[in-house]
Amino acid sequence: MKSAKIAENSGNLSILAITKNIRWCNSILIKLRNLNLTDFIERFFYADKMKQFIFVIWGCLIYSELLAQSNLGLHGIALKNSGVSAYVIEAESGSVVYATPQVSLAPASVMKVVTSAAALEILGPDYRFHTQIGFSGAVNGDTGELEGNLVLRGGCDPAFYSEYFADHYKGTFEEWCKALKQAGIKKIQGDLLVDLSKMDGGSVPGGWQWDDLGNYYGAGVSALTFSDNYYKIHCSSPAEAGKRVSITSTEPQMDSLQLTNNIISSEVNRDLANVIGAPGSFFQEVEGTIPAGRSDFIVKASMPNPAGIAAIEFCNVLKNNGISILGRVFCTNKWVGNGFTLISDKSSPPLKELIVPLNHESLNLYAEHLLREIGRAKKDSSELDKSLVALKEFWKEKNLFLDGFYPTDGSGLSRSNGICTQTLAEILRYMYLGPNHDVFFNSLPSAGINGTLQNAFKGTKLENNLRAKTGSMTRVRSLAGIFTDKNGKKLIFALIINNFEGKQATVEKAIEAFLNEIYSCEVEVLKR
Known about the structure:
Strand content: 15-25%
Number of helices: 14
Distance between the termini: 31 Å
Largest sheet: 7 strands, mixed
C-alpha cells in the first residue's frame, strides 16, 4: 500500500489508523442491509470526521464498482427480446464471477461439450473403434474358394474413411484384399454380408428437423460409416444469376440415386443450397442457390446408405485385386451367420484424436456416435433413449447442477435440447480439474487461430487465449470455454442466446464485447 497523509486537526494519521477506519467503514457497509435509516444516520453523524471522510471516499468507490457492474453484460437491440443466459466462474475455486438468472435454453453445438467430455471420462482417451473383415463357412485350400460368405462387420467407427483421417484409412480395402489372399481366398461363392448389428435403434434423433436431414450435417449414425456419411454433388453454374444450375456428377457414383435438381445461380457468393430427403432414401431434392459462374461447385448431401455404398466400393477393390465374389451385397441389422472367422481388424484413431475434429469442426456425426457408444458402455445398448439416460446419469453422479438439463441428442442439432449455462460451466470445470484436462481443452478451437473460432476475437486480448466450443443455428448462438484474464486467472464461461433479432454477426460481436469486458474486469460480479 502506498503511504497516505490525511490532515486531521493539526496531526498526521498513520497508515494503521487509516486501515482501522477503513475496516470500520467496511463493517458499516456490510451491515447496511440490516440497519434502519435512523440507526444508519446516528452511526454516520456521530462518527468522528476522519471516519466520515473515509466513509464518503469508500462510498464513491463502491458506487463506481456498482456502476461498472451495471454496465457489464450482454447488450444490444438484437438481444432485446431474446433468451439470454450467462455463467462465469473461476476455474480453480469455482467461485462465481458473473451470472444471469438460470434458464434452460437450446445450446446448439455447445451440446458437444457435454457429449465429448462424458465420452472421454467413460470410454477413456485411448478408446478405439474396430471395423473387421472375416468370413463364415470354410476355405477350400485346393481351389482357393470360400464356401461361405465374406463378412464386413461394422464397429460404429465414425471416422471410417473420413476426410479428417484420410491418411489413417488410406488403402484399408487394399490391405484387406491382401489379407484375404494370405488366407488362401481367391473366390467367394457366397455373398458379401455387411453386419450392422452393433448399432441399435434408428439412425437419427427424433428432434432433428426435416430440412436438416438431407444435408451433410444431418447424416445419421451407422454401424458402418463411410466418408463421413455424406456424398458430393458437383455443380456447374452459368455466369448469369437466376439461371438453372447443372449437376455434372456425384461422388461417389450411386446408380440408385434419383436427385431432383432445383438449384439456381446467384450473385450471393456462398452456398445456399439445401438438400431434402428422408434418412436412407435415394430420392432426394436439392434446391436453393449457389454462386454464379462456377465450373465445379460442390454441394454436400447426406449419404442415403453409407454401409451399402462402402460395401460396393469394397467389391470394386476386390475385383481390381483379382478376388471375385459370386453373390450379392447384403446388409443386415441382425447377424444370422454360422460363426465368424476374423481376417483383419481396422482400428480407429484413439478417442483423444477423434474429439479434435469433433469440437474444432463441430462434427454432428462424431458426436452422435460417441453418445451411442456411451449407451453401449453404460447400458449395454446403443439405442438413443438409453444412451441419453446414460449421459444424464453420468453427470448426475458428479453432483453437478442439472436443473433444466434435457438432452435429446449428442450434437445439439435438435432444438429440443435444453441446458443451463451453469451446467455447462460446471462440466467444463470438472474437466479442468480432472486427468483429461489437456486432452479435452486442446480439442476446443482457439480464438482467432483455428476451427469455428478462426475469425473470432481478432486483435483482442482473447485471440490465441480463449478456447471454446461454438454453437450456431437459426436464432441460436452459444459459446462455452476457458480463457486467462488480465490478472492471470483462469475463467470458465458459458453463454447461450436464443431467439435474437437481426443478424447473427451482431450477436457474435455482443458476445465478444462481453467476454472482453470480463477479461478486463477488476471486480467480481456475483449477479447481473
